[in-house]
Amino acid sequence: MKKKGVAGYMDSEENEKPMLILKDIHKFYGTNEVLKGVSLEVKRGELVTFVGPSGCGKTTLLRLIGGFTDISSGDIILDGQRINDLPPNLRDTRICFQNYALFPHMTVAENVGYGLKINKWPKGKTAARVRELLEMVELEAFGDRMIDKLSGGQQQRVAFARALSLEPKVLLLDEPLSNLDANLRLVMREEIRKLQERLHITTVFVTHDQFEAMAISDRLVVMKDGRIEQVGSPIDIYEKPANEFIAGFVGYVNFMDGRIVSIEEKTRDAVIATEYGKIGITLQQDDINHGDDVLMVIRPESVNISLDCGGSRQNVLCGSLKTYMYAGSIAKCTVTIGDRTMIIDQYNPRDAQHFKHAEKVEVEIPRSVHLLKKKK
Amino acid sequence: MATAELSLKLQASSGSKIKDFINANLINILAALLFLLLAFFLLYPIIAVLLKSFRGPSGFTLKYYQAFFSKNYYFQSLYNTLLLGVINTVVCLVIGFCLAYMTTRGPWILRKPLKIIALVPLIAPPYLFALSLIILFGRNGLVTRMFDLHWQLYGFGGVVISQTLAFIPLAYMMIESTLMSLNPNLEESAYDMGASEATILRTITIPLLAPGLLKAALLIFVMTIAEFGNAAILGGRTPFLAPDTYTMITGESDFNMGSVLSVVLIAPCILIFFIHNYLLEGKTFTTIGGKPVASEPRKITPLIKVPFVIITTVAAGAIFICFAVVFAASFYKILGVTNKFILTNYLDFTSNQAIYNSIRVSFVAAVIGAIIGVLLAYVIVRGKFFGRTFIEMVSLSGFALPGTVLGIGYLLAFSAPPLKLTGGIMILALNCVFRFLAVGVEAGISKLHQIHIEIEEASADLGASFLTTFSRIVLPIMFPAFIAGFIYTFMTAIVSLSAVVFLVSPGFELAAVKIFDAAVYGEIGIASATTMKLVLIVMICMMILNYISNKTRLGSGIAKKPA
Question: Chain A residue with minimal CA distance to B109?
Fold first, then answer.
């Protein structure tokens, strides 16, 4: 795995030991298998996000780590200790639920201090710690408020502070931002990330929002139907998806069939034959060979679109512009090439005027396109 | 129809001004008619009781109240009734909580069976438990004879036990619904922060449940002190208000004293009804909604588990034994005394006649009750007239009123012209209609809250008049509520005893009264067989109700808020 994202977790021998290891975890509800063998290692201080469509098992996995659900088979190892059979109150993990689960009959300070009180911290020490936590989430003036007198974002911070109060080894966040409105979600996401990096706390984040996942994580774990589809940095997942599902899940994508007809070994330049002509690319992958049937993964923003459709240059396809929707920073185009429709994002659409009335356009496929090998 | 007018509301479709007025005010006219019905059949009888308690042979007097508060016997009756209410409420809450906790937090395999047992008493008339206690522990009871015991079942203890068993389902249902509405993540968060099971219960579950528990307690208290059958059958020489009222009327024909007893009984009921519906309204802790999930079973510590399991097992066992005993007793003349297996109890003519009468009365009551219920619900939810809350309050109050009070009230109000109803089937049916109106109205209200007013507005917008909208849109959507109101009224009416016991005329006996008489006169076999027949009828009703509510849950999704 390449090192990407935040640095700082590769300092010493001790720190290279993973904080959390999931070993071949299976979970059945009756006869329904919701997790079908999940294995993963989470490094110290890393923020890993489980992402996937609803019903993929990501929340179940989080609840298993937290101890709220029994696992059917497999092992959960936290900081070198097997914790399969420990109940939540004896595990060094803390969870933030999607609905925050703040105790409505207690004040903010009582909520944050609940775990400290349960763990019999002396009063003075508890008060100091609560103050410190509230300062951390910038709610120091709100300690005496009742929960229902707080805004959604403030409640989110209280939940966060409460979960951090006992300095857990792993912080579990279950869709923490899904109850906030769009703008606040962006703000809170940055705050959580900043705090997580500052405290260097190992964090497992669950979301169904792929963009949120990409923005916040060191690594993404894309799940589907109880299995891990791909683990990687946001860039890896977006640029080098392992299959069609992932390519489509993390953003819009155009697929195009083709076959490798030549590979230049030194430069890794290759030519793909498609029904619309030959496309030249520079191979990024090692597992593609001459004669392979491939699927080209073409992101809408990676394609250049231009007016008129004159000479035949390489990688340029001619198509007709079906729709052109100008939206300020971006224009969304649909172009039909043969019987195929492509979605293309045009950034900085200065000459929108001309495109509005255009019929024929040129579409340039980039050389860096990612390929999926078709199964034979 | 002009399209330009379509965006206007109801008025748009009609031409003339009178039609316009009627159309626009139909809902108010309907409300006024319904209010008249309520006033006549619910308020008037109660007022009649109140007046009777103050009216002596020579006008207004307080002497009956003086008599009540100066005679030790009456004080004892009041004291017993209230004490019974308190004990019963506490015991029912504890048992109900244990059962509800186990069915919402306990192991999966236990949840369903426990829930069934907790709800089973619902299919029984409440006096089934009195009957089974007589069979087991009465003077000739199975257990009494087997161990040659010399105890006294008839009295305070017997009433407490039978009442408790009878009110377990109510307690269970109310507590279970509050427990279910409690976001399981709250308890899980506490668990996650290191709290043990007992600490979670003490610091999170019970404090959050407190408003719900208080509501349940108030309701159980009211129902207990008003309950007639168990106290009348098992009370023996111990006085309780509800059965005393009955003896006062039927035994001594003292309507004045009977009315005083009723007023004394009604006072706490009305007080609590107000506290319950208006002071505690909305007094629940709200939390941010997430996905509602069933609580996963937790590893319950023995400290909690052992007492919970003991309480649940004892309660469940007792309920089961009571049913089994009555079932068995229905095949003997007197179980334990005569040992010949017979089927004649089921063939008894007077019993079957009574069942037939009960079905007739209940059917009439159910039809009228369901119709009035749906109309009232509509008027309450959609109406915008002055006094809307008052109508709602009155229509829901029948439930909180002790049955004996409405029994006397009907006797006082409708036994002489202008409206002489006594002696017929109608007085029984109407009594049931207005006593049990609350359920039909509640069902209708909750159904209506699921329907957006926009649906009706859309209909009006397309040019439909109020009546068209009501008959083509509202009624079809309300139909499940109508059916639910119908069945509920039917099965409540068929087992109800406390009011009709005053109103039956010789020669027209009802099943519940037949059981009561048979139990009192020691005809255990007949009483048991008649009870089993009622149980069967109620069971069938429940199954239909269940089927309908499962069916319509799919349908109601459409009417709900779009996500």
Answer: A30
Same domain, B333 and B358: no
Residue B556 belongs to domain with CATH number: 1.10.3720.10
* Partners of A109 in the β-ladder: none
How would DSSP label each residue in B100-168? HHHHHHS-HHHHHHHHHHHHGGGGS-TTHHHHHHHHHHSTT-HHHHHTT-----TTHHHHHHHHHHHHH
Q: In this complex, do A101 and B183 lie within 8 Å of one another by their Cβ atoms?
A: yes
Containing structural domain, residue B110: 59-339
Average pLDDT of the segment spanning A5-31: 74
Contact state of A89 with B290 under an 8 Å Cβ cutoff: no
Q: pLDDT tens digits for A225-234?
A: 999 999 999 9
Q: Residues of A with CB below 8 A from B293's CB?
A: none
Q: What is the CATH number of domain A254-373?
A: 2.40.50.100
Q: Of A93, A101, A148, which has the smallest distance from its Cβ to B189's Cβ?
A: A101
**How far, CA to CA in Å, does B76 sit from each of B223, B237, B266?**
20, 11, 17
What single string gives the DSSP state of each residue in B385-399? STTHHHHHHHHHHTT
CB contact under 8 A, B286 and A104: yes
d(CA B505, CA B97): 42
H/E stretch holding B384 reads none
pLDDT at position B552, please? 66
Question: Best residue in A100, A107, A167, A181 to probe B by mutation, most B CBs within 10 Å?
Answer: A100
B36 is a domain residue:
no
Residue B364 pLDDT greater than 90, yes or no: yes
To the nearest whole Å, the CA of A352 is away from the closest chain B CA by 36
Residues B400 and B274: their CA atoms lie apart, in Å, by: 10
